[in-house]
Every structure is written in structure tokens, then in C-alpha cells.
Description:
By secondary structure, this protein is mainly alpha-helical. It is built from 5 helices and no strands. The chain has helices at residues 2-22, 32-49, 51-73, 76-81, 87-122. Helix 1 runs antiparallel to helix 5. The longest helix is centred in the last third of the chain and has 36 residues, at 87-122. It is elongated, with a radius of gyration of 16 Å. The two termini are 25 Å apart. The relative contact order is 0.14. The chain crosses the membrane at residues 31-48, 55-76, 88-108. Keywords: Membrane, Transmembrane, Transmembrane helix.
Amino acid sequence: MPRLTIALGIVLVVLGLISYAATAFASWTALIPSILGLLLLIFGLVGLKRPKLGIHVALVIAAVGIAGTAMNVMQLGDLFAGTAERPAAVIVSTITFVLLIAYVIAGVRSFINARRWKDQQAA
């Protein structure tokens, strides 16, 4: 799980930098995926030494990221209708949202599998 966290962090940093450049450096909010990615990268590295701490914090960050990007994801209908005020923000937020949802699902599955393995070892 720490390696997945690090990989996701790198992807989000790159996504944020690309979106910032694509919007002609107009607003720092285009860097929000990079900020999330940097935090995930840091806690992924922490997770290499202390998996429980690093991954739990990374999943909390991912959950906050999901909540934060959900508002723009709700504007997908406007994007498809061609009436979105900030189409780049909607697209980047949706990509970030989907990546974070997949990460949280993978994290929960990892916790469930770890619990099952621990229970089997105790029996």
C-alpha cells in the first residue's frame, strides 16, 4: 500500500502541474491536486517505515480530497452541456476524484485483508 500511495502522489503532483500550466498559470487552485499528491507522497514515504501511521493518514487526506473535489464533479452536467464556467477545473477535479475514490477502495480492501490475515494467524 505505501508504494501505491507514493505512485498516486506522483500522479497527482504531475496532474496539478499540468493543469496549472494548461490554465496559463492563472490560479493557484489548479495546483490543488499537486498539494494533495505531495501530502500523499510524504505519507507514502512515512508508510514505508511505519505502514499503519502513513497509510491511515494518507487515507484521511484522500477522504478530504474526495470531499473537496466533489463540488466540481457535480458540475459534470454543465461541462457536457458546454455551460461550465471553469471546464478545466471540472475535468481535473473529476480525474482527482476518481483516482482518490479508487485509492480509498484499495486502502479499505487492504485493511480488510490485513485483518483477515491477522485473524487467521491468531486461530
